[in-house]
Specification:
The chain has helices spanning 52-60, 152-165, 180-191, 215-222, 227-242, 253-266, 270-286, 316-332, 357-372, 388-392, 404-410, 419-422, 464-468, and strands at 3-5, 13-18, 29-32, 36-46, 76-88, 91-93, 103-106, 119-124, 130-133, 142-145, 170-174, 197-200, 208-209, 291-292, 305-309, 339-343, 374-380, 396-399, 432-436, 446-450. It is of the alpha/beta class and 478 residues long. The chain has three domains: 3-107; 130-202 and 297-464, Rossmann fold (3-Layer(aba) Sandwich); 210-292, no CATH class. The structure holds adenosine-5'-triphosphate and magnesium ion.
Length: 478
């Protein structure tokens, strides 16, 4: 037993008295003997000396009111809890209330979540049972948001290991230069040798065929062009897609140059054509070295983990978007029966405020994902910088400590949470997040900490003093 209900219920809230050595936190989930599910909102100090009703009565009777002094006697700490409902057979029903004196203990999510909750993703915070979700819940498009260093990547990798152990392919688009997913993949190879791991670079040796780019993407890749050059490039691309040179639409870089020359000749714009081709050849040789004539960047037949190493790629947003299309095609042709696509730093490829070509591809990809059996997992420090259309498609959100406008950006999803608990979100400890999802899958928001990984996290936060420890230097330590 943890404690007991202190006094009768008021406005769907009740006080819980706990043994002194037990720490409670706002957000903790409790359950009573008779199955009432409670969530701690915060502490309350009750003192009979300062009971507002007694005080009002004294004022009415014109009694002398002694000056309030801090008297420890009689002050009692209770934890105000909101009553979320009564758990029965994995469902939570509204109605009824716990009685004074009823015992309470830490809640176990198994009492709250109906259906087959099979997969362990963590443990309730600060304490309580293991949080398991059903396969359906883990197949929803999800977003993970939190301020820097709050535990997003740790959780993403932990959950990805769960998918991989259950033979679900996981495809990671690694956008951030610390390359913590590549490093994790290497560690996973050692920790779980039976999981196939593929680290994929997109470069000269493993290029994206140029015909995979859409006209607006090739225009972006081409760099600064004059108006004439731009027109000519667009005309050549349109011509190539209308009447492809070979059978099929797999035109090459040389095909493009040839079309440009032909069209320029017909329009008496040979100089424009020659300049455009010179420019394109230069860029293809020096900057766009990841574009080729043919190749298969993504072969899903191996299964397991795929990490696309885009962090240092000059056109990482564009490349990420093309990869989404390759995944989509592999799924449509059933070469890829399904999988999780994990995009950390998602605000880079689906930004809210910039109309870049990748935004259109990824919007479409996320919208279609469910029909393809693909599960998009987007991660970002900045939910307000994520395209709203994409954000609205995310059915599960995992929210770590988040503040300011970023908290405001997810606020409408937190309506199931008591306002005083929403205030706690900027203060959540590292590694703790609140899960919100559709009510039929998650009855109410749950605070938990990810658990179950078998690798060590590759990018722990460093202690800056440790870094310089032992270094020869100046000054005294204090
Ligand atoms: N559940 C956890 N248990 C133990 N340590 C954790 C947990 N979650 C995160 N950490 C630690 O917290 C630190 C930050 O975690 P992480 O790298 O996941 O943050 P992040 O939110 O991805 O940060 P960024 O926004 O900078 O990418 C790391 O030192 C990590 O090991
Ligand atoms: Mg991270």
């Amino acid at each position: 037993m943890l404690g007991y209900i202190g006094s009768p219920v008021e406005f769907r809230e009740c006080p819980v008295v706990v043994e002194e050595e037990i720490e409670l936190n706002p957000g903790a989930m409790l359950i009573t003997e008779r199955g009432y599910v409670l969530r701690v909102i915060g502490p309350r100090y009750d003192s009979p000396d300062h009971d507002p009703e007694i005080l009002a009565e004294k004022v009415r009777m014109r009694m002398r009111i002694p000056r309030a002094e801090p008297r420890r006697t009689g002050v009692r700490l209770t934890w105000v809890c909101e009553i979320l409902g009564r758990a029965r057979d994995g469902r939570v029903e509204l109605g009824g209330a716990p009685a004074p004196g009823e015992e309470v203990r830490w809640a176990d999510p198994a009492d709250l979540i109906s259906g087959e909750a099979t997969y362990l993703i963590g443990r309730l915070w600060p304490e309580g049972g293991e949080l398991r979700l059903s396969g359906i819940s883990l197949s929803q498009p999800s977003g993970t948001f939190g301020d820097p260093g709050t535990g997003k990547t740790y959780k993403a990798q932990t959950n990805a290991e769960l998918f991989l152990r259950n033979r679900v392919p996981v495809i990671v688009l690694e956008m951030s230069p610390d390359e913590e997913y590549s490093e994790w993949a290497r560690r996973l190879r050692k920790a779980e040798p039976e999981i196939p791991v593929h680290l994929i670079e997109i470069d000269r040796r493993n290029p994206i065929p140029i015909h995979r780019l859409r006209p607006e993407e090739l225009l972006e890749a081409a760099g600064v062009l004059t108006r004439d050059q731009e027109d000519l490039l667009v005309a050549a691309l349109a011509d190539l897609s209308e009447s492809p040179p070979n059978s099929g639409s797999n035109w090459t870089r040389e095909d493009l140059y040839r079309r440009i020359t032909d069209i320029a000749k017909r329009q008496n714009r040979e100089t424009v054509g020659a300049n455009l081709n010179a420019k394109l050849r230069y860029r293809m040789a020096r900057i766009l070295t990841f574009l080729g004539d043919k190749g298969e960047v993504f072969d899903p037949s191996g299964g397991g983990l795929y990490v696309f190493r885009l962090a240092r790629h000059p056109y990482r947003e564009l490349t990420a978007a093309v990869i989404c299309t390759l995944i989509e095609e592999a799924a449509l042709s059933r070469r890829l029966p399904g999988g999780v696509v994990l995009i950390d730093e998602a605000h880079l490829i689906v930004p809210a405020d910039r109309d870049i070509p990748s935004r259109h591809r990824v919007r479409y990809f996320v919208r279609l994902a469910r029909h393809l059996g693909i599960v998009p997992w987007l991660i970002s420090q900045s939910p307000r910088s994520i395209d709203r259309q994409v954000f609205d498609l995310l059915r599960f959100l995992y929210i770590f400590a988040l503040s300011g406008e970023n908290l405001a950006a997810v606020r409408d999803r937190l309506s199931g949470l008591h306002p005083r608990l929403i205030e706690q979100i900027p203060l959540l400890p590292t590694g703790v997040c609140v899960l919100v999802g559709p009510r039929d899958l998650v009855p109410f928001p749950l605070f938990f900490r990810a658990e179950g990984r078998r690798t060590e996290h590759p990018s722990p936060t460093r202690d800056i003093f440790r870094v310089f420890e032992g270094a020869k230097g100046h000054g005294k330590r204090s």
